[in-house]
Design a protein that fits this description.
alpha/beta, 2 domains, four-stranded mixed β-sheet, 10 helices, globular
Amino acid sequence: MFTISFALGQDSLPRSLTAEEKTRLHEIGANRTITDPPDSILYAPAEFDSVAGIIFAWESYYDLLTGLIKEVAEYDTAWVVVDNIGEEVSVAASLTNDGVNMDHVIFQQISTNSVWIRDYGPWWIYQPDGSRAILDLDYNRPRPQDDAYPENLATEWNMDYYGLGLVEAGGNMLLDGTGNVFISDIIFDASQGFDPNLTQDQLDEYFLDYYGVDNVIITDHLDNDGTGHIDMFVKVINDTTVIVGEYETPSAGAGNNYNICNNVATQIAGLTNGNGRPYTVIRMLMPPYSGGVTYTYINSLIANKKVFVPIYSFSTDADVLAQYAQVMPGYEIIGFDCNQIITANGAIHCIAMKVPAMLPEISCDQWTVGDVNADGVIDLFDMLTTADIVLTLLEATPCVQFAADMNEDGDVTFYDIILLLNIIMDL
């Protein structure tokens, strides 16, 4: 099913760089905490994976935010970031008056500069014990409170934190959950606040070390859309299906965007995901470029079984909502008027950051200490597997770690190998 709701808002910092910010690009990444990468990564959640809820920064476009918060809080948690207690009291009263389920709203008093939390907010990995950890990119804007938000959140939530030295915007990366990430080539453009010295090899290394992602797929970026971020015209809806924008005619898109969209669609259609399965590419209309604005239906947000889609009171809105319903059966498709926010070069995906769902609790009740490969026998193969863990040649799952920890001290060491060897020799 699909419904339509309307939202207006208030202008503030745009998603793009302001003229004044372009004079302060040297401030990007200042005072950031950079850490070593995690020792072990289970995986980085995908664009479409289940969420515990969504984080919103209460900085502008308040009616639009209210509508989104109301939908998220119906079943899941909406975290609302405010600057201080006075703002929290005011926002809580406003949301209550609008019928929001306040039992599912949690406020965070953490100062931010802008509403664009997709670009500066936390990214996530699951660790082998099932816990979530926060990854923190350098935001490609000289907005220090925004850039500090992920680290402040990690402190507030007492979560493991990993700070990258990579300058990137969250809206310019889409993970498919199988080891691939899509990024537009704007990441190499120093005029947009990115690192002028970044190389492809360095980018690959960042994603492998911090996200456990093996393959970085670089696409062209759109002309004249304000940011060049990939989420303005590409959407990953499951591990093998990707939506790519399409202009009806060459003149409908700014610059070379008609050809750029077609070329990116062809590029992705010729690729496979991390499991070797080919991608299916679905084309979706891009409304004509008008008045200096790149309109998009693709900057949508998947929140469990709901999809929030930007609409504009165009004659094409209903057809696009119906297309979403067709390609994503079982989801509730909800349109939000984004006429005001799109003039600031972003829409719904740009102002929401996901918090991934907790993984189900892992039980190792069926595993036996010493039987590391779970074949019912304690033998040389178990000792060799344990040695691989000690030498970090094997990334152990929690239950394998449990079985290899012979002395149950919480760590797998050479002493556990010796204990295993003694058992095997006595058999």
